[in-house]
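Quick note —
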Amino acid sequence: MKKIILTILILTATMDLAYPCSAIVLKDKNQIFVAKNFDWTYREGIIIKNLRGINKTAYYTNTGEQANWTSKYGSITFNQNGKEMPFGGMNEKGLVVEMLWLKITRYNIDEEKKYVNELEWIQYQLDNFETVQQVIEHLNDLKIYPIKGKIHYILTDVTGESVIIEYLNGKPVAYKKEANTCQAITNYSVFHSEPYKNQIKGIRKNNTFPAYRYYQLEQQISIIRNQSEIKEADAFDILRKVTIPKGDFKTMWSIVYNIHQKSISFFTDTHKEIKSINMSGLDFSNDLTYFTLNQNELKNLNQALGVLTELINQSYVSPSLIHMGFDERVTQDISRHQFLQGKNKYSIFADNYFHFEISLPMEEDEQTGFLVVMDSEQSFDNRQEVTGGYLYGKIGKGTFIVHIYGLKNSKYSMLTFIDDNKNRKLDFDKKGKALEKYATFSNNIFTSERELNFSNTSAEFNGKNAKISVTWKK
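Predicted structure written out below.
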């Protein structure tokens, strides 16, 4: 099977929600900072102090063997989905790992390896490694069997090396930068971002657009090169330039990691005073503790961390994962596992949720493909996709494989076609014959646009029938 990637990715506001975030690694001879804007639709979260010397096991997401390990290092992490599933953090050795959404992610789920999910991957690196180089050397030890997110990662350490790690075409790819070389990323892959490094011709000048935010970050890197010293305030200023202040997706947290001082500073959209926590003042051998992000009462958090219990953990996990489309039973199961850390061959997620794999055969080069997967009559009428279930862009010749993660066993509709005239619509002639190649889950043949509805394009799916190879009709 020929491996290909999107050569152009075109998104529409009505058909596809953006999943923005921005991150940058700033370096000079004396300082290293990681600055991150967490842009999302849900704001509640906590900081967790994770302990060293703890035996851990990945949550059971599928048949195969869960990874298990003992944490070598303590860490501070930013979490919405509970203990062991952070969005980012720093360990006591100065390794920082952060993540951002990447739509074209395709994990190595079919490899015969022990697995973690996409957020446990972050905690695993913080628990086990001191440097970027160590992470890269062990990159192929595990596979990712995700719960929902399509993400890529940016990491740095006390040596000044940094790396962006992406899972494309089922394989991890590392884009490494040496010490004193800054690095930035938003929500396009490195390959798709680099054309916008020095120019913004043809892109929307709006911070909701990944290419524009990437351009802004790269321009700030150019300015920083001429400064004699980088300060924490500079990092926060850069984050403000790529902040999304309002809308469905907005900047909820802004975080700056100071690698050499091993300190973390942040503020949130509702509580804008900068708070700080210093790693050197924490005991990572005792007391699993946490702190709520959205508050202004205390600026130095070292003495304000409270005991994290499973009940408190669950109170954050449930609303966050329910917000992402999971039911209450799954959130309880995940939170319970995060505290028990047992190895088993069952989970509510594995029994009730699945991952789609949809193969699109592209017979010619540079054809424009359209794909949308929907979960109800209402979503079909609005052409509103499930998370990760939309594709529109030019695709190279070969077979393009789309993964959609974390869908509940249920009925789903698909409409995919080769959009020859690029109007994002399957066209019919006056006699009702389709003018473009198309396919649906139902495998029906349509003679008019009226027949395109949820019922006529859908089928029931679970983990046993979730691999689809499209057969084009016309």
